[in-house]
Design brief:
about 260 residues; alpha/beta; Rossmann fold; 6-stranded mixed β-sheet; 9 helices; about 30% helix; binds adenosine-5'-triphosphate
């Protein structure tokens, strides 16, 4: 495998007396597809925000795409990272058109202003929306979209700058069964594409892990409880410890299913 895309060493974050992350050591290599799973409040979103250079830990070191946080200009680094999360969606200006939301990702900004985009940019944005099944939404306002449509548009936006690292925070949250299965299939196709960026996906459910994802982290209380190759991490013992209830897990056709044994 080629070089490290993410390297976290002893990372810790405190806010208002609470420890959000503690002793996080984590390496993501180029081409890997990671999933992060853990209970509510485990620190998943916080960890993804660190990877997205949105949060700077007081403890430990963070290297993203070979650049050391605190010693590099994050505004130059951010266009190399695709980031889709509810935190980003909440900041979309009211009235923002779908096409503009995707186009502005080239500058890692929200809200189109006076930047100039050429026809190549517009063509790429439309192609990405089309690939995610959203071609008919191009002229719509983001605020008027359904939850499922928003999720797919956000992934198109995250892919727009042709990122080296793609971070997806709960992309299937709020989707109905059909929407979830459609998204999982699209993400599986992306995961199988050798030209696709290194990926990290946060989810609550092993059923949402797309086929082709290679690595997993289980996190609880701000600390990774197990991390490594997906089939070594997704065990009944690890999941039971992570969620604090007896769980079994099985794999069928490269999809994962977990349930309680109580
Ligand atoms: N500013 C803050 N001050 C104190 N605690 C905070 C602050 N921000 C986040 N937290 C806490 O940090 C913990 C981790 O939050 P985070 O959003 O990363 O968890 P998560 O694993 O993504 O949770 P969920 O699955 O519910 O989305 C939570 O307990 C949250 O309440």
């Amino acid at each position: 495998m080629a070089g490290d895309v993410l390297e976290l060493d002893g990372v810790g974050i405190r806010r208002d007396g609470a420890r959000l992350l503690r002793d996080v050591d984590w390496t993501v290599n180029e081409g890997e597809r990671w999933v992060i799973i853990g209970p509510n409040g485990a620190g998943k979103t916080t960890l993804l925000q660190v990877a997205a250079t949105m949060l700077h830990p007081a403890e430990g070191t963070v290297d993203v795409l070979g650049e050391r946080m605190g010693k590099t200009d994050v505004f130059e680094l951010r266009p190399r990272i695709g980031f889709a999360s509810a935190a980003v969606a909440e900041k979309v200006p009211p009235g923002e058109k779908v096409i503009d939301l995707v186009l502005t990702a080239s500058y890692a900004i929200l809200g189109r202003w006076r930047e100039q985009y050429d026809t190549t940019d517009v063509t790429r944005a439309v192609e990405l929306l089309d690939a995610l099944g959203c071609a008919d939404l191009v002229r719509r306002r983001f605020a008027t979209l359904s939850e499922g449509e928003r999720k797919r548009v956000q992934i198109a936006r995250a892919l727009m700058p042709d990122p080296e690292l793609l971070l997806l925070d709960e992309p299937a949250a709020g989707l109905d069964l059909g929407g979830r299965e459609d998204l999982v299939a699209r993400l599986a196709r992306l995961a199988a594409d050798p030209a696709a960026p290194t990926m990290v996906l946060v989810t609550h459910h092993v059923e949402e892990v797309p086929p082709g994802f290679t690595h997993a982290m289980l996190i609880r209380g701000g600390t990774p409880l197990a991390l490594g190759k997906v089939d070594e991490v997704f065990t009944a013992e690890h999941l039971t410890r992570c969620f604090d209830i007896p769980l079994t897990i099985e794999r069928q056709n490269d999809r994962w299913y977990a349930r309680s044994t109580r």
